[in-house]
Amino acid sequence: MPSLGLGYLASVLRNKGHDVKILHSLKEKFNFKDFIRYIKENDFDLIGIQMFTFDLTPTKKHIKIIKKLSPNTTIVLGGYHPSGDPEGTLEFFSDVDFIFSGEAEIGLPKLVETLEKNKNDFKDVPNLVWRNNGKIIKNPWKLIENLDEIPFPAWDLMDPRTYPEAPHGGFFKSFPNAPIIITRGCPMQCTFCAGKSVTGNKVRKRSVKNVIEEIKYLKNKFGVNDFLIEDENFTLHKDLVKEFCETLIKNNLNIHWSCPSGVRIDTLDKEMLKLMEKAGCYYLSIGIEFGSQRIHDLTKKHLTLEKIKEKIDLFKYVNIRTAGFFMMGIPGETKEEMIKTINFSKQLRIDRAQFNNFMPLPGSALYKELREKGMEEIDYDHFFVHDVGFVPEGMTKKEMKKLQRKAYLEFYLRPRIILSLLKDLTSFKQFFRLFKRFIDGLK
Length: 443
Hints:
Layout (H helix, E strand, L loop, with lengths): L3 H12 L16 H10 L4 E5 L5 H14 L4 E5 L1 H5 L1 H7 L5 E3 L6 H10 L11 E5 L2 E4 L38 E4 L2 E2 L11 H4 L4 E2 L2 H15 L3 E4 L8 H14 L4 E8 L6 H9 L2 E9 L3 H6 L6 H8 L8 E8 L6 H13 L4 E6 L7 H8 L24 H16 L2 H10 L3 H15 L1
């Protein structure tokens, strides 16, 4: 998918007069030989890399290539992993010049300006992590208060029409589709989540007018009619949801939209769901997580199994597809409790499910707790939801993978689910992509 983070950074840099390119290596099907050729063919003053935890090993190889072929290029890292563990990341990547922890739309242009003036003092660059005479300095955080002040992502550098027909979740109404963000920040305290290490606790919202302008731009310029709202908690703000839906209806934009990154189920009500459906919503992912009340309480999810059942029942009033997010392997969770999660998923009338193995994400409360307890070094090359990056006490890696396979097979190999999936398929190409994802989850 297009990266909203890189798109926003490209826009703010271009507004300052800089020449910017975005390279999405996965989309371009680059291998390392292709990347070597790309660096040789271009002359960059600065290269920024958006990095997730799973990317540590390949990122190190990319950096080695850059340093060898373009030793004077400044290298900056950002994204979820550097935000969750900024000092550790800068120590791990000895050849990296700077790291941004959290949002970088304010700090990155200021860093470039400081570098252009050949200054060596970076203390005034918000969210920057840097070295000063061998000592790692972490500058104070600064969040963007008014999201309307940021220009739209540089969509011309990541044309939605050039991406594969495979948004996360795998299902869509039409192509091309595009991700958008309406809010940033999350006030919830889930101990397994690291989202706040990037966007903070404070919720900030774009105006509906600003969002509609971007939707119209994407629709008119690129033919996008299907939008993926990537907010962490869009439905947490009922007034915003109501205004957004009513404005879409009033403007007769005739678009489809979904929330594939997940919403809190306790924020939903019958009136809201009916309005969302009327405004074009067709798909919601829901963070259900566990089938054990003890684990819900342990992770500060602040949900009850009864509330989940009650809210899922509301979907009988609307034609909105649902996917449940589930997790297994929380520290302290027993095998019996994981099986409860699998069984609970089958009791709920949801259309799809994703069963993730727990990963101690840098920046999360559980990551900090495990580190303080002397957690062994993590094998980040296996740090992925369909792999086993963490094994809870009393379990083995083999047992964890076996439970994940059991979850997928028992949930999906049921007539109701199979018929629902077939009904939503738009092409054989989509079927094969989804089948491949299913098989990947079983490996």
